[in-house]
Amino acid sequence: MLNSDKHKKHKKYLIAKLIYIIIAKMAKKSRQILLDDSLQPYVDKIVVLFNQMSTLRGESPNLSTILAYLYIFKQITQSQLKKFTGISRGTISATLNMLMQFNVLERKIIPGTHTNLYLLKLDMNQISSQGLQRRANSTQDLMQFFLSIKNRIQSIAEKKYGITSMENLQEFINEEQDLKKISLLWNRSKQINAYFQTYIDLIKKTAKSEFDHNVIPEQTSKKFNMQSISTLDGLEDKIIDHLSNSSLFKLWRGASGTKSGSLKFSHTISLIIAHLILNETLTQKRLQNLTGFSAGTISQDLSYLEEKIRIVESWVDPKDPRARRRLYKIHPMGEVLKSAIQSSAGVLINIFQEFTNIKSDLESKKHTFEKINGYTKIMEFLDEFTTLFQKGLQDYK
C-alpha cells in the first residue's frame, strides 16, 4: 500500500514536470516566432523613423527603439528586445523600468517560466498625450529659466546703474557697452518667453487642452537660483550652457538632401545659435573664438542657418577696408522659434510619408506575408499609427 502511494505521488510529479516542460517549450517557441525574418527589414525601417522622431523630441534612440517594438507587438520580453535591437540588457531593463514608472507598461510572468513579459497598458493616443505633457513641462521650465534671467538682469541694472524700470532702459543707453548688453539680454529673454507661451498654447491646442493627468502629473516648474551670478558674463555663460543643451534647439531640423529629410542638427549649430542670440552681430572669427570650432565648421553651419532655414542674415562689415569680413545677425526671436517648429513639422511630414509608403508596400504584398508571423501586428500598428499621426499633423497645422 505504501509503495502504491509513493508510486502515485511519483507519477503525479512526473506528469506535473512534463506539463511544465511542455508549457515552457511552447512559450519559448512562441517567443522565437514573434517576427518572421522576412519582415525584419520593414520593422527596421519603422525603428529608423521612430528614432528620427525621438531626435526631434530630444529623446534617447534606445527609448524610441524599444517603444517601436512595444507599439508593434504590444507585449514583449527582455530577451526578444535584446535579440531584435542589440541594445544591452542593462539599458533595456532600465528603460522598461522607467516606462513602468510612467505607468506605460505592466509586467507579468509567463506561465510555466521565470520570464517577465512586458505589456503596453496605454494606447498610442494616451502615450501621445504623455509626450505632449512632458513637452509642455519642459517648455514651462525654459520659461521659468528666462524669467529668472530677466529678474537677475534687472537686479544687476539696478545695483550697477540705478535703473529701476527696464521699460525705460533706452533712456540710459549711450556708448556704455554693459547697458547695451543688458538691453539686448532683457529684450531677447522677453521675446523668448512670449513665444514660449504661444508654443505651450499650441501644444494644448494639439492635445485639445486636455492632458491625461492620471497618466503623468503636471510638474511644478523648476526653480533656477541666479543669486550667485553678479556679472553679465556669468549670465551669458549660464544662458549658453542652458540653451545649447535644451530640447528646444532640437526642433531645428532641415531636409538636407535626402528623401526622408535627414536631420541636420549638431551641437555646433545649437552653440552658434545660442551665441547669436546673446550678441547683436558676430563675425565668423569671433564665433571661432567663442566656440572653439574650426573656420570650416563655422562657415558651413552659418551657411545652413542663413540659406536653408533662414534665421540668420549677413552683410559685409562696413568697417572692413577689404570688404571681406561679414557680420551675422539672428532674426527676431519670434521668427527664429517659429522657424524651429516649422522645420520640425516639415520633417514630421516626411516621416509620415515614409510610414505611408511602408504601409502601402506591405498591403501590396499581403498575399505573400499575411500568414507570416508578425504581419498582422505590423499592419495593425501602421493603421493605428498613421491615423493618429495624420490627425496630429492636421492639429499641428
Defining key terms:
Arc Repressor Mutant, subunit A, two-stranded antiparallel sheet, 14 helices, 3-stranded antiparallel beta sheet, about 400 residues, single chain
What can you tell me about this protein's structure?
This protein is mostly helical. The protein has 3 domains: 2-123, Winged helix-like DNA-binding domain superfamily/Winged helix DNA-binding domain (Arc Repressor Mutant, subunit A), CATH 1.10.10.10; 124-231; 245-364, Winged helix-like DNA-binding domain superfamily/Winged helix DNA-binding domain (Arc Repressor Mutant, subunit A). Helix content is 64%, strand content 6%. It has 14 helices and 5 strands. It has helices at 2-32, 40-57, 61-73, 78-85, 89-101, 124-161, 177-206, 232-244, 267-277, 284-291, 295-308, 333-364, 366-369, 375-396; strands spanning 75-76, 105-109, 116-120, 312-316, 326-330. The strands form 2 sheets. It has a 3-stranded antiparallel beta sheet. It has a two-stranded antiparallel sheet with strand order 4-5. Strand 2 and strand 3 (116-120) form a beta hairpin. The longest helix is centred in the middle third of the chain and has 38 residues, at 124-161. It is elongated, with a radius of gyration of 28 Å.
Under CATH, the homologous superfamily of the largest domain reads Winged helix-like DNA-binding domain superfamily/Winged helix DNA-binding domain
- The proportion of strand residues reads 5-15%
Cα end-to-end separation: 83 Å
CATH architecture grouping of the largest domain: Orthogonal Bundle
CATH topology of the largest domain: Arc Repressor Mutant, subunit A
Count the domains.
3
Strand order of the largest sheet: 1-3-2
Total count of strands: 5
Q: Provide a count of the helices.
A: 14
The first-level CATH class name of the largest domain = Mainly Alpha
Element order, helices and strands? HHHEHHEEHHHHHHEEHHH
Largest sheet: 3 strands, antiparallel
Radius of gyration: 28 Å
> Which class of secondary structure composition applies to the elements?
mainly alpha
Overall shape: it is elongated
